Amino acid sequence: MKIVAIDTYDVRFPTSRELDGSDAMNPDPDYSAAYVVLHADNGRAGHGFTFTIGRGNEVCQAAIEALAPFVVGQSVDDLGEFARRLTHDSQIRWLGPEKGVVHLAAAALINAAWDLAGKTAGKPVWQLLAEMSPQQIVDLVDWRYLSDALNPAEALEILSAALPGRADRIADLKRSGYPAYTTSPGWLGYSDEKLVRLAREAVADGYTQIKLKVGDNLEDDVRRMKLARQTVGDSIRVAVDANQRWDVDEAVRWMTALAPYDPWWIEEPTSPDDVLGHAAIRRALSPSGIKVATGEHVQNRIIFKQLLQADAVDFVQIDAARVAGVNENIAILLLAAKYGKPVCPHAGGVGLCELVQHLSIFDYVAVSGSMQDRVIEYVDHLHEHFVDPVVIQDGAYQVPTAPGFSAEIRPETLQRFSYPDGPEWA
Ligand SMILES: C[C@H](O)[C@@H](O)[C@@H](O)[C@H](O)C(=O)O
């Protein structure tokens, strides 16, 4: 099967203005998707995107269009080879390698190719992956720069050890789903009353973990954290997320002030590039039991490798569309399994819940074989724009059954929210 044409769309949602001021670093997040449709010579189409904010989408869109010649006319029969074509080219390599906007663009294209492969096979992407042999999975990964932490032979061992029980774990997921946590109560812009109401509703809806945004004002954070804890009780985990707001010492001071209310993890306390900074924060906070999570802006598998080697994180937060799509995320799942760290993906944004559920399900079925301390983020926002939206029941993601990567945006949404000419913007 070959790609014969690409369509691109700059899709932006002004409706997300209800979230203005909602985290410490994104004052006006026009949630956006740099969206791509790959048309194949079998008449099918694969959909993919990366999540950006507002004007960032133009830059991303330009990068996707610049990468189009690497995709049109190419075969998608071997998805390892397809992904490598986008990341190994020596001229593209000069741009990074493997980070920033070019990498986001590669993610959109590679994920679209997976959507196409799933639709062609008539299977959801998690199942396509979970039915592969350990060797086929290993062959999807770009192993460059990883061998000091994990080599293909070790990966093969991890995947082979998870072979027995794959069918039982699928049955288990179909029965109970994959646990989610919700960020919906915790946006910074919400009043205390709204926080309390949404936190109470979250517990009633079956969530065992919620997340609050922090990092704007310490006094407010202490009050909000105390309210959240009083509302949900001691048995519900309350994670907090600073969206990269602090320097290292400040992160430790701020979190020490929140410690009496037992935060489960601090997410993105500082720059996502600061491996040693994360390690220092983790060491300083470990006596108070606060864990460290990061990953939604970690640019590639090599930085994840270092975070693990430096024992800098407790939770690995993959993002389905920041690193180079499914393939690079498989490398990160394998690294996390090797180092025994739970993967708790970042989601929300535009369609990230839809994508990442496939990767966590695959992780449970075929890689880590464990759901211990693992949760997928859920944000109740923009799902109505997807053809195959996530289904959450009793605080858990239900296993997707439609063929593909759940990545397809409804045609009327593409038209209405296209920037700048769609009716919503014009
Ligand atoms: C602007 C975005 O909503 C972020 O606040 C969001 O992705 C966040 O970091 C999260 O972890 O959900």
UniProtKB/TrEMBL annotation:
Sorted UniProt keywords: Lyase, Magnesium, Metal-binding
SMART domains registered for this protein in UniProt: MR_MLE
PROSITE patterns: MR_MLE_2
One Pfam match: MR_MLE_N
Cofactors (names): Mg(2+)
Keyword Metal-binding attributed: yes
Matches recorded under Gene3D superfamilies: Enolase-like C-terminal domain, Enolase-like, N-terminal domain
Domain Mandelate racemase/muconate lactonizing enzyme C-terminal: 192-288
Enzyme class name: lyase
Protein source organism: Paractinoplanes aksuensis
Protein name according to UniProt: L-fuconate dehydratase
PANTHER family membership: ENOLASE SUPERFAMILY, MANDELATE RACEMASE, MITOCHONDRIAL ENOLASE SUPERFAMILY MEMBER 1
Catalytic reaction list: L-fuconate = 2-dehydro-3-deoxy-L-fuconate + H2O
Enzyme Commission number(s) from the entry: 4.2.1.68
InterPro entries xrefs: Enolase-like_C_sf (IPR036849), Enolase-like_N (IPR029017), Enolase_C-like (IPR029065), L-fuconate_dehydratase (IPR034610), Mandel_Rmase/mucon_lact_enz_CS (IPR018110), Mandelate_racemase_C (IPR013342), Mandelate_racemase_N_dom (IPR013341), RHMD-like (IPR046945)
